[in-house]
């Protein structure tokens, strides 16, 4: 049951990325290009995603446990530190360089397999590097 | 004089955008994140789930769940591209650009504990100050990187 829910959620997520055009790195870099040919589409995607999710957080507050798991396991850290900041900046630079973040890169494995595979392989290498270097 | 000037400047921006597609696709993404939260009690943060699926993270949901979600991403992309003609994907041509971008995205999302989905969609909708800071920083870094690319004469 839990696996089927996760598969459906992942499929909806990947489908949403394709419908919104966010699988296209050129469109994402267009959003980041505020000093050039700015394309605001990504802002509409964020708005469209945040509305149902904000509702879900309100519903969550009324629930003792999720539907198909024993308990809610949610990030509880409130710390804003150098690690968070450095990570976000490094991620943002990579996002600007290629126009890809993790979700679209994985969805693109089905749409532009070879370039997406290069990016995803490098992304795994970056994750592994973090695992090795960070205690 | 000024009003038509403003609209004139805005028109090409709006012509480039796809607000309807953006909102519709965004709502699917929000629905997916809501399903993860209310169904499984987890954050739909792609970088965390992918790291968990590949064994590059120790903490997180059961691995089977992370794998199922990760497998759904290309499946969803593929289904939409079958159903709708013309899902455009313009990848960077240089493998070096893809490799450098991927390396930075992989390292940065783990160090910063999240990406566009975890901090952006899930965190902002939860009004998390931590996610707001992360989102402003990665967007700012993205704006600066693309602007710097223009400065170095790279293709925009």
Record field, number of beta strands of chain A: 0
- Give the CA-based shape of chain A: globular
Quaternary structure annotation: heterodimer
Helix content of chain A: 55-70%
| Largest sheet data of chain B | none
Cα separation of the termini of chain B: 31 Å
Mean pLDDT of chain B: 92
Total of helices of chain B: 7
- Unreliable stretches of chain B, pLDDT < 50, 5 or more residues? none
Mean pLDDT over the full residue set of chain A: 96
Ends distance of chain A: 35 Å
> Gyration radius of chain A, to the nearest Å?
17 Å
* Shape type of chain B: globular
User: How many domains would you count in the coordinates of chain B?
Assistant: 2
Series of H and E elements of chain B: HHHHHHH
Please give a handful of descriptors for the protein shown.
heterodimer; A: 135 residues; B: mainly alpha; 7 helices
What can you tell me about this protein's structure?
The complex is a heterodimer of chains A (135) and B (156). Chain A has 135 residues and is mainly α. Chain A has one domain (2-133). Chain A has six helices and no strands. The model of chain A has no long low-confidence stretch (mean pLDDT 96). Chain B is mainly α. Chain B folds into two domains: 1-89, no CATH class; 93-156, no CATH class. Helix content of chain B is 74%, strand content 0%. Chain B has seven helices and no strands. In chain B, helix 3 (46-53) crosses helix 4 and helix 6 crosses helix 7 (129-151). The longest helix of chain B is centred in the last third of the chain and has 23 residues, at 129-151. At the A-B interface, helix 1, helix 2, helix 3, helix 4 and helix 5 of A face helix 1, helix 2, helix 3, helix 4 and helix 5 of B.
């Amino acid at each position: 049951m839990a696996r089927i829910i996760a598969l459906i959620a992942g499929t909806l997520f990947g489908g949403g990325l394709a419908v919104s055009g966010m699988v296209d790195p050129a469109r994402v870099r267009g959003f980041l290009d505020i000093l050039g040919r700015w394309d605001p589409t990504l802002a509409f995607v964020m708005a469209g995603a945040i509305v149902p999710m904000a509702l879900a957080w309100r519903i969550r507050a009324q629930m003792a446990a999720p539907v198909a798991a024993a308990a809610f396991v949610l990030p509880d850290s409130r710390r804003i530190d150098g690690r968070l900041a450095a990570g976000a900046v490094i991620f943002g630079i990579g996002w600007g360089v290629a126009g890809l973040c993790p979700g679209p890169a994985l969805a693109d494995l089905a749409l532009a397999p070879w370039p997406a595979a290069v990016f995803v392989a490098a992304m795994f290498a970056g994750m592994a590097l973090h695992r090795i270097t960070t205690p | 004089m000024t009003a038509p000037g403003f609209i004139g400047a805005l028109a090409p921006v709006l012509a480039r955008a796809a607000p309807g597609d953006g909102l519709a696709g965004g709502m699917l993404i929000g629905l997916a994140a809501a399903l993860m939260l209310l169904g499984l009690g987890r954050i739909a943060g792609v970088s965390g789930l992918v790291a968990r699926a590949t064994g590059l993270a120790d903490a997180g949901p059961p691995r089977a769940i992370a794998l199922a979600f990760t497998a759904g991403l290309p499946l969803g992309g593929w289904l939409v591209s079958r159903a709708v003609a013309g899902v455009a994907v313009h990848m960077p041509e240089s493998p070096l650009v893809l490799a450098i971008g991927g390396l930075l995205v992989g390292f940065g999302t783990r160090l910063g504990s999240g990406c566009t989905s975890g901090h952006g969609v899930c965190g902002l909708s939860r009004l998390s100050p931590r996610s707001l800071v992360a989102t402003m920083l990665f967007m700012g870094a993205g704006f600066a990187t693309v602007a710097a690319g223009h400065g170095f004469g790279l293709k925009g």
